[in-house]
Amino acid sequence: MKFKILILSVLFLITGCKQNNEKEHSNLKNETTQTIKKEWWKEAVVYQIYPRSFKDSDGDGIGDIPGIISKLDYLEALGIDVVWLSPHFDSPNADNGYDIRDYRKVMKEFGTIEDFDTLLNGLHERGIKLIIDLVINHSSDEHKWFQESMASKESPYRDYYIWKPGKEGNPPNNWTSFFGGSAWEKAGPDGEYYLHYFAKKQPDLNWENPKLRAEVYDLMRFWLDKGVDGFRMDVIALISKPTDFKDMDVEGLKHPEYTYAYGPRLNEFLKEMNKEVLSNYDVMTVGEAYGGNAEKTLEITDERNNEIDLAFWFDAVRVGRDNFKQNDWTLPEFKKLVKTQSDVSYHNWPTFFLSNHDNPRAVSKFGDDTPEYRIPSAKLLAMLLLTQRGTAFLYQGDEIGMTNYPFTSFDQFDDVEIKGNYDKIIANGESPESYLEDLNKMARDHARTPMQWSDQKQAGFTSGNTTWLGINPNFKAINVEHNLSDSNSIFHFYRKILDIRKNNDNLIYGDYNDIAINHPEIFAYTRTGKNKTYLVVLNMSRSTVDFKINKQYKGYNLVISNLTEELQTIDSQTIKLQPWEARLYVSN
């Protein structure tokens, strides 16, 4: 909590943030619309595909690239601009593809390199770009580099990884892995330990070694020369390691990400990467900035520094989260986090997302997944996602309102993180029952259950009899087929908002101003461009709310609502909103 307060304080100092009210305009004072450099990736809506869970083409219960190819028309119909494909590389799957055995091959369960080329070409034919995961903090322990590195201290690959001798029969220090246990593992004939921030099958690469960096840049060129349009950079803030390797104190052990992230040479490495590779292509880069030092995160995405374009900030999407526990949170708390990441200098560009493969389902955390309110709240979240300032990232299944899975036992989970940390959490006094209750709120596997395509066998995901992870039992009511056939569905609401957003400079580049930041139920904000102002009013509660609004918005016209199709104009200073009602207005 102290660290979160510090983060917010730093960001407010950086951006000159101040408390908003209805009379205040954005602290940017239209710098956004006057001086911002326009880029295609700033205007894009990105759709993340988790290939194991999207569509299975061969009946083995595992999603694959031919399955994605079979749904390209669906992606085109939705209207997204970019697909982010989670790891498709050859991997033994200790962490669902984030442990890469060969960076130039496709995982056999997913298909072939020819399948990848077909996918890339099919997307481009439909005007959709493709970015892929760049996992370069670590590799698989089955990668040939590591096998050679482990074989001998004299190996030319030894320094591709981080090896240290133990201390008195113990690991080199007390650092812990994000997936449980020590961050060190003894291996090889010399009895030394290698560093792994994640699973022991994911040894960390040694970015201090210029030969390793050259290898990474070469594999990046391999995919860019194929025509991919950029990279989502996995845990990129961790590639530069602390140089002293000192033991952590008690506070450090609670949140090791603050020790691991933003090492002393991170900016140097990213500048070199940009110079050697990225500057030679018209691509987008978005880094996973977990462990966030806010000032450093702004620094690596400052367009003047020539490092990376975008970064995922996690404070808002993880609101209320404390490690493996999801605590209650308030709407004002969430809105202030959103405002902080939106009010960055025009030399930076924000991202906005409500879920991904590492977080629970958006409608289950930020909406209301009960039968009565799931559809209106999912539509409300569509409006929230697509009217914020920044590049929007939509996760597969959220466009049909998929919900968290009702886990009843630990053996239903696949996630290596849950399995690796179970003993530690129980040893710290948590009961299995309370841990399972927390996991049903925040586990990553909620987002990884197979896509629900129809109400038929296995939700239309596979023709086989089994799936790699359980299908949510609510698939008969929640699926793509039903959404496509219903003009009032969540899918079609996304489609309408995407149409409104497309090429809309006022909505994309306009200034952001929260006009009710302390309201406990209403999220209301404006997006002010050069010639239009949009007003977004969201009732994020089960209550009917009379929302008092400044008279300056009188005469604004309703563009779209999730509960009514009637054209309305604001004619008083009070707007009556039904539970989970969302409205988008525009100035005359």
Judged by helices, strands and strand pairing, the structural class is alpha/beta
If you compute it from the alpha carbons, what radius of gyration comes out, rounded to the nearest whole angstrom? 24 Å
- Can you tell me the overall shape? globular
Biggest beta sheet attributes: 8 strands, parallel
Q: pLDDT average, as an integer?
A: 93
Topology:
Blueprint: H1 2-15, H2 31-35, H3 40-43, E1 45-49, H4 51-54, H5 65-69, H6 72-78, E2 82-85, E3 89-90, E4 102-106, H7 113-125, E5 129-134, H8 144-151, E6 163-164, E7 184-187, E8 192-195, H9 210-226, E9 230-233, H10 250-254, H11 257-260, H12 266-276, E10 284-288, H13 294-301, E11 310-312, E12 321-322, E13 325-326, H14 331-342, E14 351-353, H15 362-365, H16 374-387, E15 391-395, H17 416-427, H18 432-442, H19 480-485, H20 490-501, H21 505-509, E16 511-514, E17 522-528, E18 533-539, E19 545-548, E20 557-561, E21 574-577, E22 582-586
Parallel strand pairs: 1-2, 1-15, 2-5, 5-9, 9-10, 10-11, 14-15
Antiparallel strand pairs: 3-4, 6-8, 7-8, 12-13, 16-17, 17-18, 18-22, 19-21, 20-22
Helix pairs in contact: 16-20
Which properties best describe this structure?
22 strands, 588 residues, globular, 16% strand, eight-stranded parallel beta sheet, disordered N terminus, five-stranded antiparallel beta sheet, alpha/beta
